[in-house]
Write a structure and sequence with these properties.
Length: 130
Amino acid sequence: KNQKMATQFEKVDIRKTLLTNEGGLGFTLEMREGVCFVLSLENNPDGSIGNAEIAGIEVNDEIVEVNSLPLQGLPFANVIKERFQIAMFPMTLSLRRYVNSQDQHQYGGGNTMNQQQHANDLYRQQMNHS
């Protein structure tokens, strides 16, 4: 079974940047077997698209580091207190994402930078309209 999974899904390491926590981070977290995952994405209180979604974060992304500080081995309460609550912005998240190996090319090379730039542009447009 596991071997079949390994051929269909690959881990991709990506970095995403949250520019602000105004309106909240835009995601909820869940700890599974000592690993921190994005459980859900949330809109801002005014109903606009949330900061995490703007940054390109996805449900089930594994959060490996916050601003280069590792999460591994920390209890959930400490992850929240010592990594998220005191984080400076912009906040850079190192993520591990499981992608279908057919989709792998979307995350290769320079595309993540383009995605980030697009997210930043969206963010600026949104800030200008608010």
